[in-house]
Amino acid sequence: MKIDSVELLVLKLPYVHFFETSFGREYDREFILVKVQAEGLTGWGECVASERPLYSEETTETEWHVLKDFLIPTLFRYKDSDPVSFYWKVKPFRGNPMAKAGLELALWDLAAKSMGVSLGRLYGGTQTEIQAGVSVGIQDSLDDLVTRVEGYLKEGYRRIKIKIKPGWDTEACAAVRRRFPDIPLQVDANGAYTLAQAETLWKLDEYQLLLVEQPFAPFDLLDHSRLQKLMKTPLCLDESILGETTARQALEMGSCRVINIKVGRVGGAVEARAIHDICRLREVPVWCGGMLESGIGRAHNLHLASLPNFKLPADLSASKRYYHEDLIDPEVELTPRGTVAVPTGAGIGVNPVDKRIEKATLRREVFKF
Ligand code: OSB
Ligand code: MG
Asked: What is the pTM of this model?
């Protein structure tokens, strides 16, 4: 397709409730939307880095720089809107997966719209709805935690994930388990531990968790394999899995038994699908992680999560769990079955609302072909 323009927008949206992980508490999310226009169609992508480099090295500012100075010029030079070509053309630029994914996803949306099919169908997805889980941040007290978990269970979520850190781990699990002995429960440390704390992590085996997510630092595949040998509970890697290669290495080393796929973390849907496929061949289940995206990024996650090996409930919750007013209409809602439906319209299949986007925009720039 002949691309007319690429637009970058920086937005800020306040959360309904603060979100705290082992790396800190956040009250709002700053992020970049990518809007590509071609032949009368609009493709949308969302970048998942936040203002500060805590989850990974990238920030909204580094994404802006890499998009503006390297990725968009590469797209301009080759004049090729195919997302798979884009993946190969930007591969020489090291790292910066979240910047790459934002633009690649906009090209995927455009490609699916030009064919008149949903993105999920273009990917080869087979599931029409995704089991919805909710990721519950660190709270001010254990009572607050239990109350919040209870609220989400009443709304119908199928699985609860609680964030942990040293000092907020076994007690948090015990508090939730005491009240809800049988719910599907898992924990996420976002890399807050080291092997020296293996004993605390080992104690988590008592709480019948579905999995323990990313106990150690992203680079640390070796110590994850040591810990996995000590624990019954499956380990799941998030930050460590940078692409198909690290996924294969983590599985061969026994560093985890489950993989969390986030399209932003791995640099786009080409890489995300490759991870999905090698895990499927090895019969290793995957699930779709989230980065508190707006409805645009969440729609992208839903299409990806429709692939057949996304077997465990996703961190894909309803719009109102994150934001007072989402950017899309209609908003994402939970079904009575505790699932979220994969949109069926062309491309991402959801409608971004210009007025809401405008209201949340801090900065924008249009790049013309
Ligand atoms: O580790 O999964 C994570 C949010 C920000 C940074 C890291 C993580 C998360 C989440 C959010 O858990 C899950 C969601 O989007 O619902
Ligand atoms: Mg995680």
From this structure: 0.97
